[in-house]
Amino acid sequence: NTSLWSVEGRTPDAGRLRAAAELLKAGGTVAFPTETVYGLGADARSTPAVERIFEAKGRPSDNPLIVHIADRAELASLTLPLEPAGAGALAERLMDRFWPGPLTFVLPAKPGAVSPRVTAGLETVAVRMPAHPVALALIAQSGCPLAAPSANRSGRPSPTLASHVQGDLDGRIDGIVDGGAAGVGLESTVIEVVDGGTVRILRPGGVTAEALREAGAAVVYDAVAAPDGAADAGAVQAPRSPGMKYAHYAPQGQMQLVQGDPAAVTAWIGSSVREARAAGERTGVLAFAEHAAGYDADCVLVMGSLARLDTAAHGLYAALREFDARGVQRIWAETCPEQGIGHALMNRLAKAAGHAIVRV
Ligand code: TXA
Ligand code: MG
Q1: Burial (CB count within 10 angstroms: exposed 0-12, middle 13-18, buried 19+), residue 171
Q2: Strand order in the sheet with 357-359
């Protein structure tokens, strides 16, 4: 049976989190909100606890987990110093700037500090400090570094509401802390620090490349994480971040991205919808608010505004889940420029579509 606790997202009551923290201490699995998406947490030091995460999600065992901490001082117990020394200094500057926040660092793991199931046998460990009062309070109260992947069944869109977690994992995990809607709506940015001046983005996310550059870091990309790399299915063979190779975020319907001049996109999608409907299929369009009125399909969903891509990031996963709830079989989606959060948004859209992109 899965317990459910509702807490105030901004100022969670410690008493209300106590039972959840006790479950975590005892090796249980508890889902909780972060500023990106909901995570499914367990004590990162305990192999049986971490195994429960993999089992509940149906997650492939070669896909490592992010460890969440509430205090920078914990880093020293989880990781080894970064080489060369300049890289360590850059990592610290970026932590000063972006922690707590949606930036995950892949760092040399201290042997034995976390379960080998967390790192999937790699010599590195991914660590982040989430910027959500509920997540921070829960980590602190449990006293555990929490391994926490997104709290969805493997392959499904990440949950941005507690009800999404319930839909996927009710009965499979010990508890859910409902702290309202998650923030960004897309997962954290995963980086490696290459040297004293450069980071490599392994997964685009809540902290944009522009923000990293503003903080003084040069940015290079793993092939799967590059702008435009989103469209390149060939690049997904051997990503440095193992999770990037899995078909992910996918709705049950077949999805295609349509790129081009807005009027041409609307026309092309319109005729595709008519054809599919004539063939008896349930159709869906995922559009930006600016264009949504131009579509006629069984289910037209707005991910957010093209002028405010942060709103689209926030709404994407809920929209993908809504298509499933409405039994939509074919989905066409608009695209956006890969600037700012648009880069992470396009990366997730391309994955949801299995890299099916048509240029019109
Ligand atoms: O925003 C987030 O990061 C959310 C919230 C809950 O914190 N978590 C999340 O976790 O998205 P998950 O498990 O869905 O994605 C973790 C990503 C995967 O792509 C995984 O392969 C990568 O991080 N990763 C974890 N450890 C790694 C390591 N040692 N080296 C390279 N990539 C790693
Ligand atoms: Mg995930």
Answers
A1: exposed
A2: 299-304, 283-288, 330-334, 254-259, 357-359
Helix-helix angle 14-25:133-142, to 10 degrees: 50
pLDDT tens for the chain, residues 1 to 360: 999 999 999 999 999 999 999 999 999 999 999 999 999 999 999 999 999 999 999 999 999 999 999 999 999 999 999 998 899 999 999 999 999 999 999 999 999 999 999 999 999 999 999 999 999 999 999 999 999 999 999 989 999 999 999 999 999 999 999 999 999 999 999 999 999 999 999 999 999 999 999 999 999 999 889 987 554 555 455 678 887 776 667 899 999 999 999 999 999 999 999 999 999 999 999 999 999 999 999 999 999 999 999 999 999 999 999 999 999 999 999 999 999 999 999 999 999 999 999 999
**C-alpha of residue 102 to centroid of ligand 1, in Å:** 11
Find out whether 43 and 24 touch, Cβ atoms under 8 Å.
yes
Compute the distance from residue 67 Cα to the ligand 1 centre, in Å. 9
- Indicate the helix (H) or strand (E) that contains 16: helix 14-25
The C-alpha atoms of residue 206 and residue 219 are separated, in whole angstroms, by 15
DSSP state of 42: E
Distance CA 125, CA 197 (A): 21
Residues framing ligand 1 (Cβ under 6 A): 34, 36-37, 39, 63-66, 102, 104, 106, 119, 122, 124-126, 130, 148-150, 187-188, 190, 202-203, 240-244
Q: Using a CB cutoff of 5 Å, list residues around ligand 2, an ion.
A: 150
Ligand nearest to the CA of 63: 1
Q: What gap in Å lies between CA 281 and CA 46, rounded to an integer? A: 47
The number of the ligand nearest the C-alpha atom of 203 reads 1
Nearest alpha carbon, ligand 1 atom 33: 241
Closest C-alpha among 115, 155, 121 to residue 243: 155
Distance separating alpha carbons of residues 358 and 66, to the nearest angstrom: 34
- What is the pTM (predicted TM-score) of this model? 0.96
Q: Which residues contact 272 (CB under 8 A, 6 or more apart)?
A: 330, 332
